[in-house]
Amino acid sequence: MSPHPSHASNRPAHRLGRRDLLRRVFVGAPAIAGLLAACSAPAPSSAPPAPAAAAPPAAASGSQATAAPAAAASAPKRGGTLTIAVSEEWRVLDPPTYANIGDRQVYYSIFNTLVAADEQSNIVPELAKSWQVSPDALTWTFNLVSGVKFHDGTDFNAQAVKFNLDRVLDAATASRFRSELADIQEIQAPNEATVKIVLKQPFTPLLAWLTDAPGMISSPTAIQKWGKDYASHPVGTGPFAFVEQVKGDHVTLKRNDSYWQPGLPYLDQVIFKPIPDATVRAAALRTKSVDIADLIATSDLAALKASSDVKLRTIPGARWQVCHLNEQTPPLDKKEVRQALAYAIDKDSLVRAAYQGNATPMYGPMSPVYKNVFDPAVEQYGFRFDLAKAKQKMSEAGVSGFKMPLDISVAPETSRMAEQIKAMLAQIDVDVEINGRDGNGAFDLLGKKQFTATQISWTPRPDLDGNLRRHFYSSSPLNYQSYANPKVDELLDLTRRLPNGDQRIQAFRDMQKILVDDVPWLYLVFENQTAGMLSRVQDLPPITDTLMRTKSVWLSS
Amino acid sequence: MTRFIVRRLSLAVPVLFLVSVFVFSLLYLTPGDPVTAILGPDQGDAEVVASLRRQMDLDKPAVVQYGLWLGRVAHGDLGYSYHLRESVGDIIAQRIPVTFELAAISVVLSLVLSFPLGILSATRRGSWLDLLSSAASALGASMPAFWLGVVLVLVFAVQMRVLPPYGFTRLDADPVGNLKAMILPSITLAAGYAAILSRLVRASLLDTLGEDFVRTARSKGLGGRAVVLGHALRSALLPIITTIGLETGRLLGGAVVTETIFSLPGLGRLAVDAVTSHDLPMLQGVTLLMAAALLLSNLVADLLYGFADPRIRYS
């Protein structure tokens, strides 16, 4: 079908027909091609897809950010506009209902959370100045800061907190966090300054979740006033108030002059600009048209390192690449076969060839961003490249080579990595067939369990529980690879009950040993996430979720 | 003439209908789920998913979904984008000026470049100038926009610091800033277009220059310039106009890439986002608009035939 209708004319006979003419001048089928391109063309060389959409690390851990040294110990200066180039566009400025990386970048400037994560990923007070857990671990009591007002002038209080949390739990809100907080029985607001969260069963990760979007408190008045349009009129208690947005172009925030934390914030204005192309984002930083650019591509690192006007902030492990192995598809049901695959992968080589060194090998499912829990011993007991052992495991399993379709979410690094894996596994006679997909497509097939092996990336949840339970608990609907180990289930239950502390850390570490040996995933690499900023940008805290906290930021001249 | 236009416009309706069916089925058949795109790949419990499917009409059979959409469009409502929480019509209206300006500047730029180049090549066939222009258009046609765009940014924004590397400034807010921001994207988009047009001008003009009426004009003593510009070029215009009409489709397709590189908030980038998030109402809206623009540009091209060649009459 051509959308170009035939025309009626008494065209002179000697003239070339349209078709002949077009054929002569190498113009393919531009009309339909143009339309198709409009429908399907992927953004070229854009940032790696961000499928593991939600959730920062916050709770149990520490950051390893190599923050640029603060320029001076001088007192922060007031004023100025901070322009931040972000790789992913925000869509909806309403925390419970949309929370991709692009949205959450903006949220933290407009909203406060009940509790917050500091640079060491300890949980510290924010809108809740203190909290207690009942001895049976079923009631959490939060004491709120008083005298806080929303940007619309209404009061922040316990009723507002209850309103917001109830909203998350209401199925009609369609919040992705409802399932995360399913253990909540009820929210109570006994007085203006006290909120009680009553649980159905002990749920230690609760506190960490409240450092993220579920803990962000909107003005109930504004939510009721705007209804489904609230996302275009967000009102929080945060350091900056929403001014305007043009989707795809910018969102502008202005200083909240009556901010409740004394002296903060320093900036007059914060502007977020989406720049999906990594090279252009780095160029915008080099030309000083933005102050901060997130997610610097490996290929742009050298140029930025060489620039004296720019400093870099790298957070290792804030995204990781793994390969889910579907245990429903033989011979991947055999543990020995999965172990053989694990032995056959040379992770150091992946880091070098796919990431030019801008990543670290991954040996187990726990990211180093969970600093307190992360167990360096995993590098000793984890599977390392050993071709002889790989071949031995294959013969132990009685398998002599097989075909393995591998779905990948296409990005420059992931494609290079898949090619490497194909070559590595060919050495043990596994024939990898790479199927490139867009991020959403790869996840869709993963979710429907229509895959053999899928190479995909994940990002940290506020609590390690959020990363492990969903993927490895035998009855979890998100256990795509159909992995089941009763011992792991038991430990996952235990880590929900145990309070944060040594016992809980040990349980996670024990669990990791099993999850390494069972190989439900091929653990590939931890990516480095680097943001670049002009040297005049001071005191941007390196929180391990990589998101921008602007309240303490100031600009030196 | 009026009857011709009316008939052509009424033909557009079934074409647009088919385009919308095509896009709907295409998005329906590709892997990916709008609910997953909103809730994240691994979040949301059954009740939330169900609630969202209801709110987005996704709980109904595909045919019903399509019917509901069509019914709204018939009433002039392009629907609501749950992904952006805004009406599709509002968002598209915001984005049209950006893409329109980008396309318009690119077309003008291509015409300004390709006509002199094509004419010079045709009249000085085989000369070094002809070779140079052939080489330039081969280069222009084969440089992919995603590469050319980034190179232009690195040269003009990062090295020479004369133009901004990205972004859009509204024409009414800052006309100079607006033009500066549009220069690199327009060159990126125009490169391939100008290359094709200049080849076409050359080929078509060479054809015409070999014809009898040109020889007659020459034998009557008319100078080279008068023959080429006054007689031959006008006759050579017909296939060129056709291509300009058709190439507008390619231009809109090119806007997808160009707008992404330069972070322009236009329709192209909107289309990309709609595809990746499976935002069906938005994608339908953008595609319909692009298809309509294409049909319109073809209609204009057809009408221009009459001006280029007075022998053509519309009935």
Q: What labels would you give this structure?
A:
heterodimer, A: 557 residues, alpha+beta, 11-stranded mixed sheet, 4-stranded antiparallel sheet, globular, disordered N terminus, B: 315 residues, mainly alpha, two-stranded antiparallel ribbon, 12 helices, 77% helix
3D structure, described in words:
The complex is a heterodimer of chains A (557) and B (315). Chain A is an alpha+beta fold. Chain A has 17 helices and 19 strands. In chain A, the strands form 4 sheets. In chain A, strands 1, 8, 9, 10, 11, 12, 13, 14, 15, 16 and 17 form an 11-stranded mixed beta sheet that branches. Chain A is globular and about 70 Å long. In chain B, helix 5 packs antiparallel against helix 6 (128-142), helix 5 packs across helix 8 (175-209) and helix 8 crosses helix 10. Chain B is mainly alpha-helical. Chain B has 12 helices and 2 strands, in the order ααααββαααααααα. Chain B is globular and about 85 Å long. At the A-B interface, helix 1, helix 2, helix 7 and helix 14 of A face helix 1, helix 2, helix 3, helix 5 and helix 7 of B.
Write the layout of secondary structure elements.
The complex is a heterodimer of chains A (557) and B (315).
Chain A: H1 18-24, H2 30-40, E1 81-86, H3 101-110, E2 115-117, E3 123-125, E4 128-133, E5 139-144, H4 158-169, E6 184-191, E7 194-199, H5 206-209, H6 220-226, E8 240-246, E9 250-255, E10 269-274, H7 278-286, E11 292-293, H8 298-306, E12 310-325, H9 335-344, H10 347-355, E13 359-361, H11 378-381, H12 387-397, E14 402-409, H13 412-426, E15 430-437, H14 439-447, E16 453-458, H15 464-472, H16 486-497, H17 502-518, E17 521-534, E18 537-538, E19 554-555
Parallel strand pairs in A: 1-10, 1-11, 14-15, 14-16
Antiparallel strand pairs in A: 2-3, 4-5, 5-7, 6-7, 8-9, 9-10, 11-17, 12-16, 12-17, 13-17, 18-19
Helix pairs in contact in A: 9-12, 10-13, 15-16, 16-17
Chain B: H1 2-29, H2 34-39, H3 46-55, H4 62-74, E1 80-81, E2 86-87, H5 88-123, H6 128-142, H7 145-159, H8 175-209, H9 212-219, H10 224-261, H11 267-276, H12 280-308
Antiparallel strand pairs in B: 1-2
Helix pairs in contact in B: 1-12, 5-6, 5-8, 5-10, 6-8, 7-8, 7-10, 8-10, 10-11, 10-12, 11-12
